[in-house]
Amino acid sequence: MLHSEQAHIETPHRKELLLMPKLPMNRYLYVACIAAVCSHFSTSKILRADEVAGRNLAGWKKDLASDNRTVRLRAAKTLGAFGTEAVPTLTELLGDQDVAVQYWAASHLGNIGDAAKSSVRKLKELFDSESQPIRMAVSYALCSIEGVDEWSGPLLEGIESKQREVGCTAADFLARLGPKAKSILGKVEAKHQEYLPNQGDYHIRGSLENAVRDIKNDGLLENHKRPKGGGTPRGKNPGKLKTGPGPRGADQARQRPNVLWISCEDISPNLGCFGDEYASTPNLDQLASQGVRFTQAFTPAGVCAVVRTGIITGMYPISFGGQHMRSVVKFPEEVKPFPVYLREAGYFCTNKAKTDYQSNVDMNATWDRHGGAHSDWRERKTGQPFFSVINLTCSHESQIRHGEKTHAGMLAKLAPEQRHDPDLAAPFLPPIYPNTLEARKDWAWYADNISEMDRQVGEILQRLEDDGLADNTVVIFWSDHGRGLPRGKRWIYDSGVHVPVIVRWPQVMGQGRVNDELVSTEDLTATTLSLAGVKPKDYMQGRVFLGDGKQPEPEMLFYHRDRMDEAYELMRAARTHRFKYIRNYEPERTYAQHIDYMDMMPTLVDLRQMHKDGKLNAVQERFFAERKPIEELYDVVSDPHETRNLAELPEFQSTLTHLRKSLEEWQVEVGDMGMIPEAIMMESLR
Ligand SMILES: [Ca+2]
């Protein structure tokens, strides 16, 4: 009676109606009940198709009249999701005063293609625009509607550009044209060849590779090979527990303590102390036993440089244009890298060694010591408090996929029993990965690298103790984003943004505690200033989550994903303890876009191959859907891998509406610059 796809949908009255036929009643009433259930489904389906993120076309058009630029641009960006229905409005917007609106309008018309014929006259008027990004967007639209032979000039010109965002944008448009651009494939290939091997900007090279592939429409990258071979057996090594810090008055400990950040790369909470039974992390387990483990800590984005840009400024990168991976932008006038404020307050500030702030930061003005092997607290003046950052890089994604020999060399100092056996990895693989030899090996090597990182943490903590500083130093351990495996790093699913955070503050915070508050790495900035007795700046967007200045926990955290290397994307998300809401502003793009650097990961190579061979299960296959839904909603408690989208289920509509509204308000509050096309934004920032 019910369509199987709809049968799981719950509505407020569905249950009652379905129960009614069990009562004695005549068959007319029975039929009426079933018809009511069915018509509710079809009605809700129709309504759903007719609206985008809670508003119909008229609603979004109303937003176009707003005084707020973020609201206007978001509306222009959203209109494309209405398809042909939006063509008259989009055509009108080609004449808008805001070039970013013009750009979105043209690129949407290009996505629509043939059905946007009525916009051709207006597009042609814009073909000679002074703005290169506009010329490219218009060229894309005209190529898509009328053909590439006459209209591809600005795109071919764009891929000549040495400017990353211009080259990437041009190649991205060519990729979106796909086989429609066959007649200029030779020209695109020739340009791609100029970038091989390893010449010029690798982002542009990657974009051109995508363009060539999509124009040829041959789908799959060549497999990146890795030397074969098994892992070594794994054993347990709980490590010898050292004694805790010596006694010291809590009041004294609160006064301008030293702060040591130990940050690592690319890991999710896959540590023993976070309950991971495959992990071997004795030093971090011990640190947690001496301090507080934060179970609900997140990064606002899923990738290194964007997260670090947010931390060094204390602002969400989307509020000043630093959201793309990678780029170089200017921080707002009043914003200084935060260690400057600590130095003004007398702190000795050091950084070893990663910076990656997406801006031309004056390192000597920011740090007392930076970069070198000895850049830590040891060169401070007697009695001077310090803030030291030590970044550990051995757990970076790139360290999972090198050869056996390099891997063995990297783990040389690790106890042999801490090596992980790939044969034992299967039960720990997230369900979104296939259970293949390569996937198990990636998982084992990921765990190996975490163990090596843990060993290095042990050395740092020992050095701190040897120097007699453990008592008076707040140690904060954190990862710069989630695991460097498919649908982890770069994504704003929990696998990409949920990170381990451990804080040890002897005498003040207690030992072996667990804290479940929502915490963001964006909060590290304000918190560290506050610990040092410096008032966080008004422009900072994180909160103080430790110490006397502690601010209340927010109801939710927010996330953003924008361009990753060569692949454009635009996602925003809000997350409470229970639910994650994701808004896809580019639903027309598949999740499975190629990113050259990311595509080297053997698990992803296997995923792509198995997708091609039709061997993935339904959960794994979702990644390869041609389009994304406009909205996603997950119950992250019952569905931690975010595999069941609840966005269309009637009983979750109030949750969805609340999160959607909160996210939209946050975008306006921070002035989401991701709503401006990158090429337009960079043009205006120059
Ligand atoms: Ca990283």
- Number of domain units: 4
Query: How far from one another are the termini?
Result: 62 Å
User: Which ligands are bound?
Assistant: calcium ion
Largest sheet: 9 strands, mixed
SS content category: alpha/beta
- Mean pLDDT over all positions: 90
Q: Low-confidence runs (pLDDT<50, min 5 residues)?
A: 1-13, 37-49, 219-248
Describe the global form: globular
Instruction: Please identify the top-level CATH class of the largest domain.
Output: Alpha Beta
CATH superfamily of the largest domain: Alkaline Phosphatase, subunit A
- The assigned CATH architecture of the largest domain is 3-Layer(aba) Sandwich
Approximately how much beta-strand content do the residues carry?
5-15%
CATH topology of the largest domain: Alkaline Phosphatase, subunit A
Helix content: 25-40%
Report the C-alpha radius of gyration, rounded.
27 Å
Tally the helices: 26
Number of strands: 13
What are its keywords?
10% strand; disordered N terminus; 13 strands; globular; 26 helices; Alkaline Phosphatase, subunit A; binds calcium ion; 4 domains; 38% helix
Task: Tell me what you see in this structure.
This protein is an alpha/beta fold. The chain has four domains: 14-47; 57-216, Alpha Horseshoe (Leucine-rich Repeat Variant), CATH 1.25.10; 251-552, 3-Layer(aba) Sandwich (Alkaline Phosphatase, subunit A); 571-685. Helices cover 38% and strands 10% of the residues. It contains 26 helices and 13 strands. It has helices at 14-19, 27-49, 57-63, 69-79, 87-93, 99-112, 120-126, 132-146, 148-151, 153-158, 164-177, 185-194, 202-216, 250-254, 282-290, 304-313, 339-344, 363-366, 404-410, 437-466, 494-497, 523-531, 602-612, 618-621, 653-670, 678-685, and strands at 258-264, 292-298, 348-352, 369-370, 386-392, 473-479, 498-504, 513-515, 519-520, 557-561, 571-575, 579-584, 631-635. Strands 1, 2, 3, 4, 5, 6, 7, 8 and 9 form a nine-stranded mixed sheet that branches. A four-stranded antiparallel sheet has the order 10-11-12-13, covered by helices on one side. Strand 3, helix 18 and strand 4 (369-370) form a beta-alpha-beta unit. Helix 12 runs antiparallel to helix 13 (202-216). Residues 1-13, 37-49 and 219-248 have low confidence and may be disordered. Bound molecules: calcium ion. The site of calcium ion has 6 residues, from loops.
